[in-house]
Amino acid sequence: MGQITSLFARKMVAAAKDAVDARELLGFAGLDADEAWDPKVMISDEAYYAMLERMAAETDVTALPIKVGASMRCDEYGALGLAWKAAPNLLGSFSRVERYARLWTSVVEYELRPHPRGMLFILHRAGPRRLGLRLSNEATLASAVSLSRQVSPVPVAPVEVTLKHLAPNSLDAHEVYFGCPVRFEAEFDALLLSHETLDAPNILGDEGITQFIVSHLDAELAGMKDDTSLERKTKDAIARALSEGLPKMADIARSLGLSARSFHRRLSEHGVTFQTLTDETRRELALGMLRDNRYSLSEIAFLTGFSEQSAFTRAFKRWMGQTPANYRKEHASP
């Protein structure tokens, strides 16, 4: 199961104000409303997405991710926020995030990719496109724009914002905030930024601070266990392969650049098996898709690697103690 900083969860609840029960929602996500905000406290991605979906059942969340993204501040990101500010320009800032995002989340990877009109800052997040994930992606891209506007001496507006999911009923909040076209049902979740925007010197760019902070972040990154990310990468690879049937361990190992023997050994060293990760992946995918009424039960069965819906139903009852249909009645998002 992936991890996300609790800062975003607390910001989401705070932005909704009196429209939701903050104490109840934070408790639902495993957080204490009375504790100080600590970005280093992590929660599971499943708990975060489920919390957002619970909020959506109580209030209109269309503009919520934009409000939360706009409220994010560099100082709230600790050493990574300082590295962002001290970079020589926004290209350097985004490069820091591309490299060090693992210190903040195990479920998102970022990529800078050249584009004819500038540079794409792409957000990669695996998993079914459930409502909670979609809201989280919007907030993440909005926060990147907010941080850019705090450090750049020139007005920052992307050339374009693209999102893979369907558009909400209203785009007013999105287009006003980003100051550019926002296109849904696109190939990527991404910001397209011009070279002029990326090359403008940051207000607080400082090479000395940059070198010090980057060395600190490199040390912190080196201290993380690679096998934690291996587990996450394994589950992502399994998720991508399930629509073609139940994957074999040797095929997943090969996709990760490992021999089957080495792959088995590294998983065993940390007390997990390929079968366990496969089962967890199927269950997590099924739970996410059941919360979204766009997927039929037969489609969910297919996308989680079952040849028949009846086999999926039996497995789900083993996982959750109830049928997929009953789970959907209790948890599906509006």
Describe this protein's structure.
This protein has 334 residues and is an alpha+beta fold. It has two domains: 62-222, no CATH class; 226-331, Arc Repressor Mutant, subunit A (Orthogonal Bundle), CATH 1.10.10. Helix content is 55%, strand content 10%. It is built from 17 helices and seven strands. The strands form two sheets. It has a five-stranded mixed sheet with strand order 3-4-7-5-6. Strands 1-2 form a two-stranded antiparallel sheet. Strand 5, helix 8 (172-178) and strand 6 (182-183) form a beta-alpha-beta unit. The longest helix is centred in the middle third of the chain and has 21 residues, at 131-151.
What can be said about this structure in brief?
Helices cover 55% and strands 10% of the residues.
What is the element layout, followed by pairings?
Elements: E1 3-5, H1 6-16, H2 22-28, E2 42-44, H3 45-56, H4 64-71, H5 78-86, H6 90-100, E3 108-115, E4 118-125, H7 131-151, E5 160-162, H8 172-178, E6 182-183, E7 189-193, H9 195-199, H10 207-222, H11 226-241, H12 249-255, H13 260-269, H14 274-290, H15 297-303, H16 309-320, H17 324-331
Parallel strand pairs: 5-6
Antiparallel strand pairs: 1-2, 3-4, 4-7, 5-7
Helix pairs in contact: 1-3, 1-4, 3-7, 4-7, 5-6, 5-10, 11-14, 12-13, 14-15, 15-16
> What radius of gyration results from the CA coordinates?
21 Å
Structural class: alpha+beta
β-strand number: 7
Number of helical elements: 17
Which spans of ≥5 residues are poorly predicted at pLDDT below 50?
none
